[in-house]
Protein 1
Amino acid sequence: MASPMTLDFSKLINPSYLLDPNPPYQFAGFWPLVAVFGVALFAAILLPFYPWRPWAEGFKQRLSIPLWVFGLGGFLLLFGRNQSIPYLASRLLLLLFILASLSWIGYSLTVALKSVAGARVAYEQSAKLMKYLPKKKR
């Protein structure tokens, strides 16, 4: 029998394991999940302060909300698990939250990268054409 502090991914297909409303508060994935949610919050906090190029502002706006939701929601679910709050500590809820948040972040990242690429081309073209406009008189 495996000790309770080892990661066993074969349990993720067992419905009784996933649907347990009040699982034990100690589990092997606690600290790795704290690190992942902490990095997401750290990135969400630092994202507005990063010096973005003028054509990349949409990237910051598109990605900050999913990172905030992922970090804070993950910490809320980990808090529920640590305090043994029924149903908030559910493994299935944590798994669904992680999958939904990562897919949302991936979608937002894809859309942001596409919009940034188009905005960069437009910005470079307008910068190239700006040199032909008359300069301001002093």
Note: The chain has a mean pLDDT of 82.
Protein 2
Amino acid sequence: MNHVFTYSALGNIIALVPLKHHRSKSLQAITTLHPNVDQILIYAQHHKLINVQIYNKDLSPAQQCGNGLRALAYHLNLTNLVFQVSNKYYDGYKINDSYWINMGAATYHSYQKTQHSAYHRIHIGNEHAIFLQSMTE
């Protein structure tokens, strides 16, 4: 029986593996069986508290993955839950059939301008680049 569940979450392919089944599957075996996976989430559920270990495609540990946590909330089909990733906690909510994860406040790092584009660097647990463009008709 396959205990690796995959979801497409806003362009990312997320693999969800219950901890009790992870013991028999190595991370490398998961990426071999599912080569398009972007993140792997190993999880253990304790009522509404979900302990999560997150790994990137290259098997390096990740501190957070909002799309992955949303996919896991959908998979578990819980209305309100709390994710524990390392020593951080994230609240998850189901509102009108959509799942929301409170990732905390973003911090602004800087404005960057290159030859081809300009963008803002922000940090929401990991670095993101925000590109703004004007919308004209």
Note: The chain has three helices and eleven strands.
